[in-house]
Amino acid sequence: MGFGLWRRARYPRVMPSPPAIFNAPFAHEQAEKLLKRSRARRAQLSDQAISELLSDTVYQERRRYESDRPEPGEAERVERAATAIGHDDRPAMERSLDELITAYTEEIHNRFSPRAYAAATRVLPQALTRLVTATDPARLLSGDFDPDRRIVVQGHIDMVRGLCERGTVILAPTHLSNLDSPLIGYCLFRAGLPPFAYGAGLNLFTNPVMAFWMSRLGAYTIDRRKNGLIYKETLKDYSVELFRGGFHSLFFPGGTRSRSGMVEKSLKKGLLGTGLQAWQENLSEGRPNPDVFVVPMTLSTSLVLEAETLISDALAAEGKSRYIINDDEFSDAGTVFSFLRRVLNLDSAIYATFSQPMDTLGNPVNAQGESLGPDGGVIDRRRYVCDAQGQVEWDEQRDRVYTERLARALVRAFHRDNVALPTHLAAMAAWRALKRRHPRLDTWRLVRLGRDERLVPKASLMEEITALREQVGQLAVAGHIRAALPEDADELLQGAITRFDSYHTRRTIEPQEHEVRVDPELALYYRNRLVGYGLDGDAVVAEVSA
Fold it and tell me: Are 244 and 278 in contact (CB under 8 A)?
């Protein structure tokens, strides 16, 4: 099928309408709502509590300024707050709180552009297609080009589409790369789903091209350098108001990219709990379509743009305290383009899997949006938060338990719908073969092996691949993981080497005559995608998270 025919067949002429989230009236309305929320909370606080709340932000911001130059006006706001605290002047402290919240709201909020959105929805399918085939345009004319072999979008897509009409949907994906946000936007479009608002780390805007499009396609800004309680509360309130307004939203519950390459095992529960809060507020106020649904989404990729930087950071001693990498492969537009062009030329390079949706309590839901109990029967989720008269009972401790339950359900879904790919399995096999040769060495010593010490017998590697292929196959049959692996071990290894060599300058697995040389850091990074299934003596996530 020619490109023009494929485009018309695959994509409808009528695109999903863009959300009216980021226009000026909405921005002003959000600021007023967030101020109202904050004032209601602080009305219950003592002067001392107000002072401590403001003092926390003054302290955190001053610490940040030691390494980050403040934006114009930032330092002045903080010093006015400090003066109000010093004078023990509650009205002045209240004014400083309002000033900080307004400034934070304006920073978080980006301007949505319907024109840019319309242009992107027209151009994106063609642009990615041309990017995929840039190295060999003749393939496009030959009729053998199949975009679904490059980016596979699968899972409970029809159910998610239906739930978008029944309530508000939170998409909660795994997070591997800074390319995840535009990739997910493309997958939403491919699935025929409406656009989602999403929080994007401030560091993502260092790439000027990506920043231009992200700020106009629904991204609101999250500055993870800001640790003050007032900023965190403002961000949560912003999220709640989006849900209450019926705007579908996306955020990464892991908080940041997985440094180690593992599927997330622990999640940030602050923003995750805003869905539960918004649902209860909707119920309390009798709003139409009050329900909020959560959809786990697992991204599985053969290669990761920032793999070398991420695993080095994870292994570094200071990596335990670092939260943001400001200078990595994503910062250079040429590197990003090269990565996409090379990776998308591979068959089935990327999988995006929509898991079964659930409610904000962690229960699975059916296509009608009804919650299901352990036996598969329909349950009334309102009774978990309402009294006998159907009125919402507010209980923060109870809600923390529910949010923890939801987080565990998300982690299990992430692992269940993770797709094992040849690069993952070959890397785990190479790592195991390396450990077999150096049984006394721990992880930290293995990654520092000298060049000649990284050689392992090819026969040993093939044994590991064969054994792992069988184990993963059994896990897939049992529904604990998905797999896209060739049956033949030689084919699997060669496919993995081809993928690794298509992008990484350091050879992850380098064949010799009777041996292979392993790059321990990259092998560890890609191997980690299969941690959590008991394959390498690690704990099984389904058991520890139950």
Answer: yes
- Phi then psi dihedrals of residue 87, to 5 deg: -85, -5
Task: Answer positive or negative: Cα dihedral of 404, 409, 414, 415.
Answer: positive
3-state secondary structure 189-216: HHCCCCCCEEEEEHHHHHCHHHHHHHCC
For residue 325, give the nearest of 341, 309, 346 by alpha carbon: 309
Q: State how many domains the chain has.
A: 3
Q: Which two tokens stand for residue 248?
A: 């579908």
pTM: 0.81
End of a domain among 108, 139, 162?
108
105: left (phi > 0), else alpha (psi -120 to 50), else beta? alpha
* Distance, CA of 478 to CA of 154 (rounded, Å): 19
430 and 389 within one domain? no
How far is CA 58 from its chain centroid? 30
φ, ψ for residue 533, nearest 5 deg: -120, 10
Per-residue confidence (pLDDT) for residue 5, from 0 to 100: 29
Q: Where are the alpha helices (DSSP H) in 286-382?
A: 307-315, 333-343
pLDDT digits (tens, 9 = 90+) for 41-64: 999 999 999 999 999 999 999 999
Q: How is residue 261 annotated by DSSP?
A: -
Which pairing describes strands 292-301 and 358-359: parallel, antiparallel, or unpaired?
antiparallel
Tokens of 260: 């180690």
Q: Which segments of 366-488 does DSSP mark as H helices, in order?
A: 396-416, 422-437, 443-446, 458-477
> Tokens 């091209």 belong to which residue?
209
198 and 338 share one domain: yes
